Amino acid sequence: MAGLLLYSATLQTDVQAADSGEFQVVAWTFGIAHPPGYPLFTLISGLFAHLPLGSPYTQMAFMSALVSAITLVLVAASTAKITQTQHFSTLLPALALATSTTFWAQATTVNIRSLTAFFIALMLWTMLQNTRWGLILFFAAFGLGVGHHLSLLFPGAVFAVYILLNWLRSGATRRAHAIGLAVIIAAASQLVWLYLPIRDAANARFAPGNLNTFANVLYHIRGGGFEGDMLYFVFKEPQLLWDRLALLPQLLTFQFGPVLPWLMALAALSLFIRRTWLACTLLLAFALHLFITLTYRAPQTVEYALPVWLIACVGLAGMGNLKFKMENGKLGSKNAFNFPFFILNFKFAILMVFVGLNFSQRLPSFVALANDHSVRDAAQRTLENAAPNSHIFAQWHQSTPMWAVQSIDGLRPDVTVEYVDPRGGEAYATQFARRVAQSTAPARYATSYDATAFAAANLCAIPQQAIPVWEVFSCPLTSAKPSATAPSPLLFDGRIDVFSVKPDREAIQQGGRFEVIVIWRAAAGFVDGDSLSVRLMYPDGRLASNIDLRLDPQQQPGQVQARRITLGVPLDLPLGPRPLLIGAYRGGQIFKTPANNDFVAVESLLVQPNTSAITQPPSALIRFADQMQLMAANIQRRGDVAIVDLDWLALQPLTTDYIVSVRLEGDGFFKSHDGVPALGAIPTLKWLAGSRITDRHVIALGGYRGPLRGRVVVYDSATGLLLPKLSREVLSAEF
Length: 735
Description:
Elements: H1 2-9, H2 18-29, H3 39-49, H4 56-83, H5 92-98, H6 101-107, H7 113-127, H8 132-148, H9 153-167, H10 172-188, H11 195-201, H12 214-221, H13 232-235, H14 241-245, H15 248-256, H16 260-274, H17 276-294, H18 301-304, H19 306-314, E1 325-327, E2 330-332, E3 339-340, H20 341-370, H21 374-385, E4 391-394, H22 396-409, E5 416-419, H23 428-438, E6 444-446, H24 451-456, E7 459-463, E8 470-474, E9 490-492, E10 496-503, E11 507-509, E12 513-522, E13 531-537, E14 543-550, E15 560-568, E16 576-586, E17 589-590, E18 600-608, E19 622-624, E20 628-638, E21 641-650, E22 658-666, E23 669-675, E24 692-700, E25 707-716, E26 731-734
Parallel strand pairs: 4-5, 4-6, 11-18
Antiparallel strand pairs: 1-2, 2-3, 6-8, 7-8, 9-10, 10-12, 12-15, 13-14, 13-16, 16-17, 16-18, 19-20, 20-21, 21-24, 22-23, 22-25, 25-26
Helix pairs in contact: 1-4, 2-3, 2-22, 3-4, 4-5, 4-6, 4-7, 5-19, 7-8, 7-9, 7-19, 8-9, 8-10, 9-17, 16-17, 17-19, 21-22
C-alpha cells in the first residue's frame, strides 16, 4: 500500500515521450506496438485506459503503479519464504527495490518494464512454494512472462530448472500429473500472441499489415528487425565487450547508491553459505540476464536489466537468518547463526538508513518529473500552430507524443506526423532530409535540422518561434516567403541584412540557457569569413556569452537563411535587465550599420536567479548550463586506442536525450566519438538530480604518438542544438 501511495503521488499523468508515448497510443487504440508487439500489456493497459474514471493518461500510468506495488508485495513474500520468518527485515529487499532509480521511474510512467518485473517476482515467489499449485502457477507466470517479453525466457529457464529439480523428488504419479498440467498451461498462455494477427487484419494503429503468416508473426515476436542488436558486443564490437561488462558496478550504484550494492554482495555470500542451491540459482539468473542485457545494443540498458535489479534485491534476504525464533532473549537459527536481537536490529537499521537516503535523494526528482508537462507543451503547440494538412517529420521522441495527443485528445487529425526511422548505412541526417524532400504536402516541418544535409537536398528551413520545429521550403528561399517578410531593422556593411532576432523567453536564469532564432538575408554577396555574433555582456563590458554564426559565401543576394541557437547564462551574470546584442564581423573587422553602430541591442532580457538546479560543486571542470557538469576527465592509452572517461553529475532530472561528443586533436590528428553516455547504457533521459555517471569513449589512434588536446561537446540528439558551456576547459594528454 505504501508503494502504491508513493507511486501515485509521483505519477506522470500526462502525455509522455518516446516508447511511453507509443504505448499510450497503442493502449488507447488497441494497436500493435513495435516488436515484439506486447499483446498482453496492450490488452491490460487498454482496459485501464478506457476505465470511465478520469484521464486516460492517468489511468494508463496508474496501471504501472499498481503492478509495481504488487511486485513489491511478491518480493517481500519471497524474502519471508527464504528466511522462513515474518520479521520486519523481510520488507528490506522490497524497500530497496521500491526506491531504486529505474523501478521507481517505471512505476510512474506508461511502460512495459513494470509488467516484466512483476512476472519475474511472480516466478520467484511461486518457485519457492514447492507445492503442486506452486509448480503450476510458476509455469503460468513463466508462460505469460515470455508471452509479454521474450527476454524473460533466460532467467525463467533458470528458475524452471530449480523448481523441476525440487519437484522431481516427489512421487511419480504426483510428479507426472503436475508437470503435464504445468506444461499445458505454459503452452496455452502463448495464445496471447494471436492478438497480433487479429488486430493486424483489422488494420489497427501501427499494424505492419503483413502479420498474415506464421513466419511473419514469428518475425515480429522475436524482433527480427533488431537481430543485429542481440549479443552485439560479442560478435560485432568484441573490443568493447569488457568495457560493457565492466559497467555493472556503475549500473548498481546508479540504481541503489554507493553502499547497498556492497551489502548485496555480502548478503549473496551469506545466502550461498546457508542455501547454496537457491543462491546459485539466483546468481545464475542474475548473470545470464545481465550478460544478455549488457551485450545488447540499445540505449535502455538500465531498463532491460530491471529483472536483474529485482533479483539483486531479493538476494538481500541473505542478510537475515534462515529461521528466526526467540530463545532466551536472543534471535536464534537452525544454522547456529545466533545474534543478540539488538545486533540484528542494528544491522537492518543500518540498511534502512541507506534505503532512506536513496528515497530522500530521489523523491525531489520524481516530484519534479510528475509536475513536468514540457512534453505535452511541445507536442500540443507544434500541432496547434502547424499549417492545415501539413506534414511533420520527427524523430521518435517527438513523434510519439504528437501521435498520442492526436489519438487520445483528437487534436489536429489533418496534420500528418511521420517518424523518420534510421535505415541502412546512410547517415541519419541525410535520410531525414531526403524524406522531407520527397513530401508533396502544402507545408512541411522538421523537428531536426542539419544545414549541410538539407542544403544537399536543396532544402532551406526557417525555425518557428511558436513551435519547436523548422518549416522547410525548397531553395532558394527569398524574402517573399511568408515567414520572412518582416522589414529589416539591421543592415551590416550594406550586405548583411538581419531582420529577426527572437529569444524564446524574456526572463533568463543564472546558470541556465535560452534559445534565439536569427533570420538574415543577403542584401549583397557574402565573403568567406563573414559572420554574425549574438552575445550577452557583463555590465563592465566583458563578454558573458556568445554564439557566432558563419555565413554561407554561396548565399546569393535576396536569399534568406536562418538558425536556431542556444546561449548559456553565466552563474555570475548580475540580476536585472541585460541587453541581447547582435553584430557582424569578418576576421578582426567589425561591420557597422548605417547608423554607425557595431553591436546593437535587439531585446532586453531579465536575469533571474536559478532555483531549478542543485548547487554546483566547486571542483567541476565544465558546467553545461543547468543540466549537467563534467566533474573530472581522464585520458589513457590502451593499445592503439585512447580511453576517455568522463565523470558526470546531473544538476536536475533530465528530460532531454543528449549526446556526448569527445573530440581529440594533435599534430595532424583529429578523431571524435559521439554517443549516448556510458557506452549507450545510461541515456541522460534516465538521470535524476545528483546522478553520477562515468561515461567512457573509445577513440582509435591509428598509431598516433604525441600530445593530444580534447574538447567535450554535448548536444540535443533531436535538434542538434549545443548545450552551452559556462566554463571552458580543455582536456590534454601526452602519448
